[in-house]
Design brief:
The protein is of the alpha/beta class and 235 residues long. The chain has helices spanning 6-22, 39-43, 50-57, 61-64, 67-72, 93-97, 110-123, 164-173, 203-212, and strands at residues 81-85, 102-107, 132-136, 149-155, 175-186, 216-221, 228-234. Helices cover 34% and strands 20% of the residues.
C-alpha cells in the first residue's frame, strides 16, 4: 500500500494551521467561508473541534492510528465502493483510493470537500484520481444513494454525531446487502492525545447503539490500537 509522507504531512499541517489561526486573526490566510446554506453544518464539522484539529497537527498520526492495520479489517477492497464519513483531510480516503474500486469521501464542511478535491491531484496518480469522489453531506444525512456503498468507515467522527442511532439507521440505507461498517474512535480514558474525555463515546455504548440500529455480526477490538477502539458490523 502506498505511504504518504512529506507532501501530505505538509499539506495537512498547513491546512490545520489555517483553521486554528483563522479563529484568532482576521488577517490570517483562511479558506473560503462556507456558503449560507452550510454555515450550521460547517460549525458541526468534527475536524474543527479542538481535539481533532490537534490530531491533524500531530505528525505521528500514522504511527498511533496504524492505518494499514485498520484497513486490514476491511479485507480486499479491489471491487468495492467505500464511503468515508467525516473524511476531513483525506487521511483514510487517499489511502483507500489506491486499493478500492471507488471511494466516496463525505464531509459536512464544504471547505474540506474543496481541499480534498485539490489534494487528490497532488497525492494520487493521475490514472486513479477518478476513483476518489468528494461529496458534501448534512449532519443527519450521509448523502448516500440506496445500496451505494459496500463498505462504510467512520474514523474519529462517531462521537460528534448527535442522534447516533438514527444516523446509523439512515446509514444502513446506503449500504449494500451484507455491506460492512467500520467505526474507529477514541477510548474513554485518560490519554496524551485526542478530544476531551467527556465527549467520547465508550466502546460498550457504541456497541449497544449498533445493536439498537439493527446491525448484525458486531465485533469489537480495543487492544490493537493504543488510544482507540475498532468496531465492525454488517447490515
Amino acid at each position: 500500500m502506498r505511504k504518504y509522507f512529506p507532501a501530505s504531512v505538509a499539506a495537512l499541517l498547513f491546512f490545520t494551521l489555517i483553521i486554528l489561526s483563522g479563529c484568532r486573526q482576521e488577517s490570517a490566510p483562511a479558506l473560503p467561508p462556507p456558503s449560507a446554506d452550510n454555515t450550521d453544518q460547517a460549525a458541526e464539522s468534527p475536524a474543527r473541534k479542538p481535539g481533532i484539529a490537534e490530531d491533524y497537527l500531530n505528525t505521528n498520526r500514522v504511527i498511533w492510528q496504524k492505518p494499514d492495520l485498520v484497513l486490514q479489517q476491511l479485507g480486499d477492497l479491489k471491487d468495492k465502493t467505500v464511503a468515508d464519513i467525516g473524511a476531513g483531510t483525506g487521511f483514510f480516503s487517499l489511502r483507500m483510493a489506491t486499493v478500492a474500486q471507488k471511494v466516496v469521501a463525505i464531509d459536512i464542511d464544504p471547505r474540506f470537500v474543496s481541499h480534498l478535491d485539490s489534494l487528490k491531484k497532488l497525492e494520487l496518480p493521475a490514472d486513479i484520481q477518478s476513483r476518489l469522489e468528494t461529496r458534501l453531506a448534512k449532519p443527519n444525512d450521509p448523502n448516500l444513494r440506496p445500496g451505494e456503498a459496500d463498505v462504510i468507515v467512520i474514523v474519529n467522527t462517531y462521537m460528534y454525531i448527535k442522534d447516533r442511532v438514527g444516523y446509523l439507521r439512515n446509514l444502513k440505507n446506503g449500504l449494500s446487502d451484507g455491506g460492512r461498517l467500520l467505526i474507529v474512535d477514541f477510548k474513554k480514558k485518560r490519554m496524551p492525545l485526542g478530544p476531551p474525555q467527556d465527549i467520547r463515546v465508550p466502546l460498550f455504548q457504541a456497541e449497544d447503539e449498533l445493536y439498537e440500529a439493527g446491525y448484525r455480526d458486531i465485533a469489537t477490538n480495543d487492544t490493537s490500537l493504543d488510544y482507540q477502539y475498532i468496531i465492525t458490523a454488517r447490515k
